[in-house]
Task: inverse folding
């Protein structure tokens, strides 16, 4: 494990520099009260014991006085050392990267992003979209197991409790660990897409590429600063190595591209590498609040009913509200009808945008009155597209 | 001896022009202050518009794709059939998928790390291969 | 500086008559006192906050907010209570004629003579109203500056987690916060520059520092000084009070 990772585990990812003006913009964004306040106008500091590393304060700082720990030098060193550097960009990166090069907000630059990664010297370009799909399979089947257990179906006795929370968001996972350990059994055991792909790159990926996993350096491009902490966690060694060696943010990738003198706007539309690079639209929408829920429901519907949704857009879970809920009725396939004696199952879901808004849901769970099956929680309001590692958008006109 | 002390000053009354100029100053100041205030408050909504726009970028990419559901991703299916659960698509089931794709939280982490160090990845692959391919052989 | 012939019988000096010029009434002086004290406190605490001095930051910031309230509240109370005086002040400040052009051409009312035109005969400066061209301009600048400082300042205060004593609480975006801080700083620098000239001429510069005594004393202006500097104004004054006093 690199020294940066140890530093991150001990001191967190986010620090407020000494030139803090004390404007308090960050304090209002912090979901955990990790930013110390000693009265009006005083300089702030972050308590790493409470910080979930989400970087919402960093994005909100009007003066750019909040920084995240950078792993860029390690990545450059790995590329220079001729390692097999495998990279995976997250879904939200592609719709924000171009902003750093003057494109309009929301411009999708997926192809140019792949080209830029190759120009920068990354050996293999995979895509977190692939493991977003894989997450839906693992987390979705886990959810179905929990639901079937609650319906009393045989064979699901070992499944977990309901409701099931998503576990893709490292800010939320740390929030739950720090402040609500009582609901950890409700958290899906599925890893985040980044960590799933990290584990696969150094096993399945290395085997298929014909390289020694010890020579593979695994990099993730994330819209998120908390991902740096997640990748540094000591339990992510399931491949026999550190699963993800370095995480760099969308902002840092943009800096690398600019520094390398690459003219981003004129790059060709590149392609992703096969094996661990193909993703579905369901994986794409992971980057938006409600996206994981919608992706999971598309697959759950198909598995439970035996047929695809006629309209894949599930508007009931879209939107930007802080706490949204929806009930989706899924007809049962013949086997499930026979086993349960019911025609359909009502899946009740909730979506939390902004991790502090999960509190009422947790209160319900602790009071035993929560009837949701599946709850998506994203630390950042709006989801990963508004993550702490994204290009900073401060326009007021 | 005595003398006259005469105190002179501004007239006691003001002209219409003066009254109007005073009012105009108050109005201009009020417009300036409330203008800044309105501009600031109106920006609250605008400041968050980029979130909606970026979300729109993702939704429109999804809408334009032919592969739109996770369970139809051919590479995911291949991964299950050749590696995670050889010969089958069995998510969240095999030893290998639990090892590589699932984790634990909070106080369970230390125990989990010890387990990962105790059982090598090669052993996990062998165990998975044995249970799936072995079962397939038995069925033949 | 050139004196104007006094045609106003009320303002003429005669033997056996002592003419006293009542320049600033008590309400004006109290308001000016509040504004002066709060402005100076704001300037000092503001510099401390901008410089990033760690000493007593919370107290400085709190004092800055409270004094900001005083700076805005004092003139508002004055405008409501003494509208006539305020209106006349604004009329004077916004009235410009050829004599103001002459003041600028002098140049700058002759205030630069000791520095730029040493050993040369003094420039001709036309007679001036209650406030000369520079004072009128400074008055407008300080009023507009304080309006902008007040508006941006209260928005910044409302933008803190507790807001203004929990009564007004806004959540402005980062871009707007940046904009408000910059606008506040730029306006503060401009306003402070005008204030510095105002303070220098009113309190320090030996030719004009009698004005300090008038404003912070009893409000009575020196006759010779007024006749020399504000002849036009002297010709508009009326008798307010006349009484016989024993020597």
Result:
């Amino acid at each position: 494990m690199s020294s940066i990772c140890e530093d991150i585990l001990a001191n967190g990812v986010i620090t407020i520099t000494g030139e803090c003006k004390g404007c308090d913009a960050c304090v209002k964004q912090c979901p955990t009260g990790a930013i110390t306040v000693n009265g009006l106008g005083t300089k702030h500091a972050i308590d790493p014991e409470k910080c979930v590393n989400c970087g919402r304060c960093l994005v909100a700082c009007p003066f750019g006085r909040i920084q995240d720990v950078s792993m860029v030098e390690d990545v450059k060193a790995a590329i220079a050392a001729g390692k097999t550097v495998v990279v995976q960009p997250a879904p939200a990166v592609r719709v924000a990267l171009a902003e750093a090069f003057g494109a309009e907000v929301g411009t999708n630059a997926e192809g140019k992003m792949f080209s830029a990664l190759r120009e920068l010297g990354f050996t293999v370009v995979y895509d977190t979209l692939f493991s977003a799909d894989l997450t839906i399979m693992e987390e979705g089947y886990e959810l179905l197991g929990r639901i079937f257990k609650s319906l009393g179906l045989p064979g699901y006795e070992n499944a977990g409790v309901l409701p099931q929370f998503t576990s893709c968001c490292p800010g939320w996972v740390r929030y739950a660990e720090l402040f609500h350990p009582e609901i950890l059994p409700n958290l899906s055991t599925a890893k985040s897409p980044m960590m799933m792909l990290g584990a696969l790159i150094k096993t399945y990926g290395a085997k298929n590429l014909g390289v020694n996993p010890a020579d593979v350096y695994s990099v993730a491009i994330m819209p998120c600063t908390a991902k740096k902490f997640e990748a540094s966690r000591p339990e992510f060694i399931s491949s026999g190595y550190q699963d993800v060696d370095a995480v760099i943010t969308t902002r840092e990738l943009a800096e690398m591209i600019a520094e390398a003198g690459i003219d981003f706007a004129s790059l060709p539309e590149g392609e992703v590498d096969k094996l661990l690079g193909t993703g579905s639209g369901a994986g794409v929408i992971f980057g938006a609040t409600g996206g994981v829920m919608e992706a999971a429901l598309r697959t759950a519907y198909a598995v439970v009913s035996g047929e695809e949704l006629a309209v894949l857009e599930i508007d009931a879970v879209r939107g930007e509200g802080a706490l949204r809920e929806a009930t989706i009725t899924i007809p049962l396939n013949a086997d499930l009808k026979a086993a349960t004696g019911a025609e359909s199952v009502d899946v009740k879901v909730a979506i939390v945008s902004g991790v502090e808004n999960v509190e009422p849901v947790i209160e319900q769970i602790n009071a035993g009155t929560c009837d949701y099956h599946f709850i998506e929680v994203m630390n950042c309001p709006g989801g990963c597209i508004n993550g702490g590692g994204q290009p900073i958008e401060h326009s007021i006109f | 001896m005595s003398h006259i002390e005469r105190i002179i000053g501004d007239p006691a009354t003001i002209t219409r022009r003066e009254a109007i100029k005073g009012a105009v100053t108050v109005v201009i100041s009020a417009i300036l202050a409330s203008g800044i205030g309105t501009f600031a408050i109106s920006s609250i909504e605008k400041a968050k518009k980029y979130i909606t726009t970026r979300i729109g970028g993702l939704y429109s990419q999804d809408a334009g794709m032919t592969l739109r559901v996770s369970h139809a991703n051919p590479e995911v299916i291949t991964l299950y059939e050749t590696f995670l659960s050889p010969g089958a698509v069995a998510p969240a089931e095999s030893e290998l998928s639990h090892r590589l794709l699932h984790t634990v939280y909070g106080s369970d982490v230390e125990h989990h790390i010890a387990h990962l160090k105790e059982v090598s990845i090669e052993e996990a692959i062998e165990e998975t291969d044995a249970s799936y391919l072995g079962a397939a052989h038995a069925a033949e | 500086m050139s004196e104007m012939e006094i045609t106003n019988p009320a303002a003429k000096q005669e033997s056996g008559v002592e003419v006293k010029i009542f320049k600033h009434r008590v309400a004006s002086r109290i308001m000016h006192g509040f504004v002066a004290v709060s402005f100076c406190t704001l300037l000092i605490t503001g510099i401390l906050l901008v410089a990033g001095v760690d000493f007593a930051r919370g107290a400085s910031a709190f004092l800055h907010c409270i004094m900001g309230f005083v700076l805005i509240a004092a003139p508002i109370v004055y405008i409501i209570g003494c509208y006539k005086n305020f209106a006349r002040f604004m009329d004077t400040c916004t009235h410009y004629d050829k004599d103001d052009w002459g003041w600028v051409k002098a140049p700058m009312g002759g205030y630069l003579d000791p520095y730029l035109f040493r050993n040369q005969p003094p420039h001709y400066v036309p007679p001036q109203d209650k406030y000369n061209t520079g004072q009128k301009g400074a008055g407008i600048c300080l009023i507009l500056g304080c309006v902008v400082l007040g508006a941006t300042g209260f928005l910044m205060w409302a933008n803190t987690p507790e807001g203004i004593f929990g009564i007004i609480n806004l959540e402005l975006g980062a871009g707007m916060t940046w904009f408000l801080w910059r606008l506040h700083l730029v306006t503060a620098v401009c306003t402070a520059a005008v204030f510095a000239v105002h303070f220098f001429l009113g309190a320090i510069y030996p030719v004009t520092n009698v004005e300090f005594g008038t404003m912070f004393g009893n409000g009575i202006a020196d006759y010779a000084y007024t006749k020399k500097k504000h002849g036009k104004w002297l010709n508009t004054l009326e008798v307010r009070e006349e009484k016989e006093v024993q020597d």
In short: The CA atoms of residues 92 and 134 of chain B lie 19 Å apart. The first helix of chain B runs from residue 16 to 46.
